Amino acid sequence: MSTETLTYDVFLSYSLADASVAELVERALQEGGLDVFNSTSMESGAKLQDRLWRALAESSAIIAIVHPQGPVASSIAVEVGAAKAWRKPVYVVHTERGDVRLPDYLAEYPTYPIARIDDIVRSITRGLKGLSEDEQQILCSVYSEIGIPTDQLMVQPASLDKLAREFNNRSPTRFSGEQLVRELLQLRKRGMLQPLRKR
Question: For the domain 3-128, what is the CATH code?
């Protein structure tokens, strides 16, 4: 099957120096039932970059694998930046024990030692299934506090980012802004979303 036609659950972003760690992460994700894109499985060629970007665009989440003691590969910065622009959930995996220092652009994302990869699997799997009743209540509460109608959220990136940030701060499962808007539309369709109060 061509990699150009696949949709992935997870895109792995890492430097070649961390390829062995990426294999461990990939195996754990696959054992958890997730479809993983790993660039090492691709053949080199003229369309390699296009395939990478397509795989990133079609993935539901991205995991950046970093080694805190060394420099972070520029490719990770680019791929995480693209994921942020597309409002995809980003997780950071490192190989150290205890607290680690990361570049500012990675510090805003949840960070896990490799020993806790199962926590990431659970979070991504939950994100693919949609919101639980408790998470729906959290979303409705955040939506009410922000006070911006769903149709406006879709065209206001800063407001969409705020919705995702506030929700993810209160929920154990991370969702992108687009996922949350889709959930809001479903809740509104089912009559479960209270109209916003006029300010």
Answer: 3.40.50.450
